[in-house]
Amino acid sequence: MQNFHFDLTLFRQGGPMMWPILLVALVGVLIFVERVLYLHKGQIRTDAFFAGIKNLMEKGRLVEALTVCEETPGPVAAVIKAALLARERGAEQIASAIQGAAIVQIPALERRVSAMLAIARVAPLFGLLGTVLGLIDAFFGIHAGGAYANVGAVSGGFAAALVSTAFGIAVSAVAHLAFHFLSGRVRALVNDMEYAGHEMIQLLTLPQPAKPDEPAPKA
Q1: d(C-alpha 2, C-alpha 24), whole Å
Q2: What are 104-134's pLDDT values in tens digits?
């Protein structure tokens, strides 16, 4: 059995629709790399970060807490900063500030992620179009050859049909995986924002229990 090797010759056999498929594949790679780097930059240890902010607030070091939020990338720090700036306006205003910060951050997280799904849907269509064009070419070869048409006259069209379909399906499958991976990262960051917002409301609005080593208030 002859080994299957993907090379430039095989790519050319796929016909003209291989170039649009290759183009959307390259665009998908660029989008995926950019989104992974962006989402990774915004991923922090939410528990540890919130614990640090809580510690600063308990010590009355508000300015330092705000500075830490400004210097920390990602949506969680932005949500906590919004809550700190609205700390004296009551629970409702704090919740509104958190929601406003989330509304700003979520579109930035979701930016270009849907493009991966579009690539996953378009790539097999390009492959199907390449299949149709290849079959048309094959039938023209049969028609031109008439009763004396040979395999060589039509093999190019069938090769284009099969190769373009396979390449389009492969690009679509990878793009689907990339889309679900990025969507999962976005959901994780949104969950972190929700957790941070809830904890900040609890911290800023509910009375905090006295520490065991604090002296009891005098009567």
Answers
A1: 30
A2: 999 999 999 999 999 999 999 998 888 888 7
Token output for 173:
């499958």
Token couple for 123: 């790539």
| pTM score of the predicted model | 0.78
Burial class (CB in 10 A: 0-12, 13-18, 19+), 28: buried
Task: Say if residues 120 and 172 touch (Cβ distance below 8 Å).
Answer: yes
158 contacts 181 by C-beta, under 8 angstroms: no
- Tokens (6 digits) for 35: 């989104």
3-state secondary structure (DSSP) of residue 111: coil
Dig out the tokens for 204 from the structure.
């800023």
Q: How far apart are CA 168 and CA 25, in angstroms?
A: 9
| Cβ–Cβ under 8 Å, residues 131 and 158 | no
Phi, psi for residue 190 in degrees, rounded to 5: -65, -40
Q: At 105, list the tokens.
A: 């951050």
**In sequence order, what are the residues at sequence separation of 6 or more whose Cβ sits closer than 8 angstroms to the Cβ of residue 188?**
43
**How far, CA to CA in Å, does 176 sit from each of 17, 57, 169?**
20, 44, 10
